[in-house]
Amino acid sequence: MTWKLTKKNLDNPSLLVDESLLSLGNGYLGVRGNFEEGYSDSYQSIRGTYINAFHDETEITYGEKLHAFPDTQQKLLNIIDGQTVHIYLDDEKFSLFEGEILHFERHLHLDLGYAERIVHWRSLSGKEAKIHFKRFTSFVTRELFAINVKVEPIANIKQLKIVSSVNGDISNFVDKNDPRVASGHAKRLEILDVKKEDAYSMVKDITYASELEVACVTTTKIKASNYTYDSNVTSSSIVEEYTSDGNNPVELSKFNIYTDTLRHGKELFDAALTVHKKIENITFDQHLAVQKEYLDNFWFTSDIEIKGDEQLQQGIRFNIYHLMQSVGKDSVSNIAAKGLSGEGYEGHYFWDTEIYMFPVFLMTNPSLAKKLLLHRYTLLDSARQRAKEVGHTQGALFPWRTITGGESSAYFPAGTAQYHISADIAYSYIQYYLVTKDEAFLNNYMAEVLFETARLWIDTGHMKNGQFRIDDVTGPDEYTCIVNNNYYTNAMAKHNLLWAAKVYQILKENYYDKLKELTSKLNLSEIEVDQWKDAGEKMYLPYDEEHQINAQDDSFLSKKRWDLDNTPKDKFPLLLNYHPLTLYRYQVCKQADTVLAHFLLEDMQDSETIKRSYDYYENITTHDSSLSFCVFSVMASKLGYEQKAYDYFTETACLDIDNLHGNTKDGLHMANMGGAWLAIVYGFAGLRVKESGLSLSPSLPVKWESLVFKLQYHNRLIQVKMEKTMVTYLVLEGEGLTISHNGESIYLESGKEVDTRY
């Protein structure tokens, strides 16, 4: 059970959700879990195939457009459909919405890397067959999406026909009633070419504005005792038909290769054919064997083993698997808010990556984490440009939502005003350095990013009464916008500024030639560096004497508290039922804000202030954002609220499987999936990565028998096993090292288990 997700529902709401849950991806290519044969006319489906970062530019329309409002936004596109396979038993078309279903089940195999659907079906006239679908997106050949269909005749069938098609006439899904989903611009692809060459069906499209091209080149292979073949090419699609007698099983394998101009140049058909030639002698089952081998290696370092709750064990493995399926692995892509599982948030990358998803890869697969940071580095010039657009003379302002680096949010109070994103990105660079000690990375990328983000804070903030203050920004809580001295923003900016000054000093002492190169490139002076240090040390961090907590901002605690207890359940999430100005006038939080800062930068406040702040903000937080439960779980673990930590974690771990937010149909909540991992490793295990080293403060949930996971740190692979009365540490790979366990230093000798009491 814990290594697969099984679904047996056929009602429309469940099918829409299952399309997301059973989606497949490999970081480059994503395919929703649609039925190959489609649905009945009365059923809604979001049929989708996506390439990470493949987008068009669409115009943003304003009633009143002001200076530096973005003119366009990027939009992830649904691309050429290679999923479709129809099956005919004589003249009756197979459909799960007609006839009699004698057996139906679907599985997503987390350890094997494929999805399957098993059906035993009887038509209206009594024709009967067993049909077995399998599909995967390859983890090794990133362009490959393959389908295998086996049809076993059971009764009353004279003729079997399998029809496979590739269709280039594709649109995106729209929902005008939900701002989290695209509300327009459905049709953004134009067909360039459709043709059949030898065994290959070839379709190529181009986007309307960005002029990016995408191609799908497909070949099919049949196993049947005897059959006839036919094909038909139209202006938008290619259809292949295989017809055999109804007495023997038939098996069709369909291999779709997707290429795009972001990675493959202009000759997309040639690029696709090159890939086809490399895999032409590999069978479908052999591809599945390669999938398993890849996943064996992945799970060795990334698995989290929970004994004591099978549902949560399945939930965390499901989350980790989808994170792996969604993470961009090249220089032009990142992780979208919905991964490659749907069109929610239009395929945009948010700060979710750095704070919620990046740590998973940092601690289990640092090479993938590095790729995410390198992608952000490629957007640095765009961030510099955005800073200038909004009136800054220096620095880098990273966008709230983007694909190629430009701001894609038309709503600036909860978009561009979230300046903390620049500090979030800096924070992730610092964490990467602390975990890997990658000096070349510090020299070639990290220093420049930290310097440019530090410059932003100097140009944004100002000194008043000996304190550095930052006005008119929005923190993570989008129910409170355009405020002075948001605690989270100021704390993260402080961290950013002080580390920028520290990195300058590291370069000065150890890599002077590199420092000279950077100072010349950036026109940087030591006077600036002194400003960074001074501003960081004098950063104002709001504190309320009456409540003895960190105020979320200068005005937050003076507002009236929202009456959450008496707000009707159908009014949540609040953002869909109340005007933003109404929300801004109350003490009400969409998600963790100050509490998130206390998690990321716990050393900036004493433990009692953190505890009082947690207690206060918990009572006014709606958790309307999927980014919230996990943070409250992590901090509840830190504060000793064991039951709260567990309850918040359970909300996080199964948020998509149980569709707790009601919008999983639009794609999976990738940041929440990363957050579930955080709730375990940073929460129950108490992991922290600081300059002083690696520390853990473990506390096993009462309901669990044990918890086992692994960490990558300083070129070591460390296994942590938490049981009822003890914690066992083991360095599996690399040299021994000293870590902190509950505040005490212990040395871990390589290859030798070290048992410690809680």
Automatic annotation (TrEMBL):
Ranges for domain Glycoside hydrolase family 65 C-terminal: 687-746
List of catalytic residues: E478 (proton donor)
Keyword Coiled coil attached: yes
Keyword line: Coiled coil, Glycosyltransferase, Hydrolase, Transferase
InterPro entries in the cross-refs: 6-hairpin_glycosidase_sf (IPR008928), 6hp_glycosidase-like_sf (IPR012341), Gal_mutarotase_sf_dom (IPR011013), GH65_N (IPR037018), Glyco_hydro_65_C (IPR005194), Glyco_hydro_65_M (IPR005195), Glyco_hydro_65_N (IPR005196), Malt_Pase/Glycosyl_Hdrlase (IPR017045)
MF terms in GO: carbohydrate binding; glycosyltransferase activity; hydrolase activity, hydrolyzing O-glycosyl compounds
Entry annotated with the keyword Coiled coil: yes
Binding site for substrate: W351, D352, K590, Q591
GO biological processes: carbohydrate metabolic process
Domain Glycoside hydrolase family 65 N-terminal: 8-258
Stored SUPFAM superfamilies: Galactose mutarotase-like, Six-hairpin glycosidases
Span of domain Glycoside hydrolase family 65 central catalytic: 317-677
Chain segments annotated as coiled-coil in the UniProt record: 508-535
Family: Belongs to the glycosyl hydrolase 65 family.
Protein name (database record): Glycosyl hydrolase
Organism of this sequence: Paraliobacillus quinghaiensis
